[in-house]
Amino acid sequence: MNKTSVLISFSLILLIVSIIPLFYILREYWIEHQINERYEIHHAYQDSQVFGDMEAVPELTINDKNIKIIEEKTSKKAPLTSWDQDENVSPGDIVKIHLLLNDEEISKPDEIWLSNRNRGGRYFSWFDIVIVTDKLTGKKQINIVQRLTDNNQPMKSREWKIITITQDNDVSEELLKYSERNDNKLGVKLINFSGTSLMSMGYYSDITKGYPNHFFPFIYPISTSIIGIFLLIISLNIILYKKRLLLIEREL
């Protein structure tokens, strides 16, 4: 095997082992770019206010839409997490929350764990309200995002419900499962934005979330792909150069 063949083989090996993770990374960034270009998303509350940080009934009015939460006590306490134990925090209450739009209930009540800390909102990581503007049509909608699975569930088992309230007060609800998240890309963006994901998730894979070190993805698969392409181009140029030399020799 000559040097050119070795160079081609090495470049192909680099490309083969790098192409699939590189494709996954580029796909995630492309989808994120498309969503950011199409939609503008921000919290429904103002400034640094956190929805649910007040002692009274949590309530928010957006134009002609009044959104209110009524808590139904369950007499249950949430299990302590490891960081609760480290900080010696007492267990939080588990309640069912009723969602009301202009005093009419719009969804089945589901349980959430109330925050047992003095910082952040009482619904932290469980519930949020955001406003989404479609830049293409100019239409705005309110999205209520609520996590349905508790803190102890593995990521692959997690579920959320996303309630959409249009400008005309039409209400719809979707169930988003982690295992089927690629069917609702805007929903994934809303979950990540709302902080109800616990761990940030991708649209098809989590390859761009929580890079373990600089080796991934900067050395592998990005740098290895670039090196593979560069070596392949050099190899092909060498082959073409040798062919041109042969043609010249034959003509002489």
The main sheet orders its strands as: 1-7-8-9-10
Structural class: alpha+beta
Helicity, in percent? 25-40%
Please describe the biggest sheet, giving its number of strands, its sense, and whether it closes into a barrel.
5 strands, antiparallel
Query: Could you report the average pLDDT, rounded to the nearest whole number?
Result: 87
* Form type: elongated
Gap between N and C termini: 29 Å
Please state roughly what percent of the residues sit in beta strands, choosing from under 5%, 5-15%, 15-25%, 25-35%, 35-45% or over 45%: 25-35%
- SSE order in H/E notation? HEEEHEEEEEEEHH
Unreliable runs: none
Describe this structure as you would to a colleague.
With 252 residues, the protein is α+β, with helices and mostly antiparallel strands. The chain has 4 helices and 10 strands, in the order αβββαβββββββαα. It has helices spanning 3-38, 82-87, 185-194, 218-251, and strands at residues 39-43, 59-62, 65-77, 93-101, 104-105, 110-113, 127-134, 140-147, 159-165, 171-177. Strands 1-7-8-9-10 form a 5-stranded antiparallel β-sheet. A hairpin with a 5-residue loop joins β7 (127-134) and β8 (140-147). α1 (3-38) packs across α4. It is elongated and about 95 Å long. The two termini are 29 Å apart.
